Amino acid sequence: AQSRQLPNYGQGQGLSSRQWWLDVVKQTFRLSGVREDGVLTLVAENLYRDFCSAQNWEVLPGAGETLCRCCQRGFRMGVVSNFDNRLENILEQCNLRHHFEFVLTSEEAGFAKPDRRIFEKALHRVGVSPEQAAHIGDDYTRDYRAARAVGMHSFLLRAAGHGEEPEVPPEHVLPTLSHLLALIEK
């Protein structure tokens, strides 16, 4: 509901992503019957802070090795994410940031996937055409279809049996991130 009412962290309405998230948490607890504003503020601020650290995120199995091998092959990599300005620090704490040339969040870009402009901004940042780039994501609409609509190669990270998409050729589906290396080595 918050995303529909205030898309992309409420930037168009003058909110910061921090305030947007604090409002989401407070409203969620209000809907469950909690009414004490002091408690709501404390819970919201603690959750926001906690999700700034690596301890609340899980690195996909094989991610570090896959990213290292892609770097060794000379691939220029970046992150394009519908996330807020905390992402760069989270990636740093997860020991993943050094693999990427850039991190572009929807908060920074001013628009979110599937909007083609976030992909175009990423392509411009590294100076490559869409045909020279590939996007890997786990959302059929926001990642796979959106990147393809811009003209990029695209892969859908999808564990076997988790929501098969009929329009995705099997060779575009990655059961794990490690499967990317087999595609690259072909």
Automatic annotation (TrEMBL):
It comes from the Eukaryota. Gene3D superfamilies: HAD superfamily/HAD-like (3.40.50.1000), Haloacid dehalogenase-like hydrolase (1.10.150.720). Pfam families: Hydrolase. GO terms for cellular component: nucleus. Coiled coil: none annotated. CDD domains: HAD_dREG-2_like (cd16415). Belongs to the HAD-like hydrolase superfamily. This is Haloacid dehalogenase-like hydrolase domain-containing protein 3. It comes from Syrrhaptes paradoxus (Pallas's sandgrouse).
